[in-house]
Write a structure and sequence with these properties.
Length: about 300
């Protein structure tokens, strides 16, 4: 990769890592489900008028929109609203690579090799260490919701692989149109119209800036740049940069939110990032397939795109 393109990949990882801090700030202004709905509304409009018609079947757009947009982000934002720290959430979500590998084995017949299985075990050990740390210092409910969000991310990754969108940005913009109404309805039912109206009436420049960041910077710029890189380089060259997301997430949370990072959390981070690296960057085999080709092969774009097609 050219130095400028390496810098661009690192910038996208930084944007996605800092996004967790921005979400934390946004949750001080909006209820979580309303916040998620506004994020997708801003990401979809007016971008949907600029990216052209969908390039995959609507069933995949609706499926990914519901699983990723409604369930995954609903769980993530609610988990953070219930006390899951921004830095920890940025780390925990990376276990999506393990869920993706498991679901791909069930749904797509992709048999994980020994290195991938070892990576999954290491990543799960990291989750266990993080759970011990969180149980000693914070609420486990938010932690559990973040893990559930990571599982939903894994499901959406498998659906995305089935869809095989030729244009990641086009796909993500159209996916963003799906969750808006379901999230608004859920917000009205679960969070209440009074709380929603109070948040909208109290909208200030900080709230506007938060929505712009999570919608346009994280989604439109992030997916546009990441998809551009994936069209020019092998996924095995681009995907490792996504492992920087929790690094930026934890460091920015410590810098801007004053979140402490205990020794146990550093240990969890090392285990989880190392395990995710083995899980994400080690190719699997289809069940019944012959021996692996001798040439090195990176993960498919949609697999590497656990972060490329569904940013935090």
């Amino acid at each position: 990769m050219r130095p400028a393109h390496i810098a661009l990949a690192a910038l996208v990882a930084a944007v996605w890592g800092v996004n967790f801090v921005v979400i934390e700030i946004g949750l001080d202004h909006f209820p979580p489900l309303l916040f998620s709905a506004l994020r997708f509304l801003a990401a979809a409009l007016p971008a949907v008028l600029l990216v052209g018609r969908p390039k995959v079947a609507w069933k995949w757009i609706v499926g990914v929109g519901l699983v990723l947009g409604v369930v995954k982000f609903g769980l993530l934002f609610t988990g953070m609203d219930l006390g899951a720290p921004a830095g920890l959430a940025s780390l925990i979500l990376q276990v999506q690579a393990v869920f993706t590998a498991l679901f791909a084995f069930v749904a797509l017949g992709e048999r994980p090799g020994r290195l991938k299985i070892a990576g999954m075990a290491v990543a799960l050990a990291g989750i266990g260490v993080a759970a011990v740390d969180e149980g000693a210092s914070g609420p486990l409910v938010g932690f559990a919701l973040c893990i559930a969000a990571a599982a939903c991310w894994g499901v959406s990754n498998v659906l995305t692989r089935k869809a095989s969108p030729p244009d990641a940005l086009n796909f993500m913009v159209w996916v963003s149109t799906v969750p808006i109404l379901p999230l608004l309805v859920l917000s009205l039912l679960l969070e209440g119209p009074e709380r929603d109206l109070e948040a909208l009436r109290g909208l200030d420049w900080t709230g506007v800036g938060v929505i712009v960041y999570v919608a346009w910077i994280t989604t439109v710029f992030g997916f546009g740049a990441w998809g551009w890189l994936l069209r020019r380089y092998p996924a095995s060259s681009v995907a490792p940069f996504s492992l920087l997301v929790p690094v930026f997430g934890m460091s920015s949370a410590a810098l801007f939110l004053g979140e402490g990072v205990s020794g146990l959390r550093w240990c969890a981070a090392a285990l989880l990032v190392g395990g995710v690296a083995l899980t994400s960057l080690t190719p699997g085999r289809a069940v019944g397939a012959g021996p692996e080709p001798s040439r090195e092969r990176g993960p498919e774009p949609a697999e590497a795109g656990g972060r490329s097609l569904s940013s935090p």
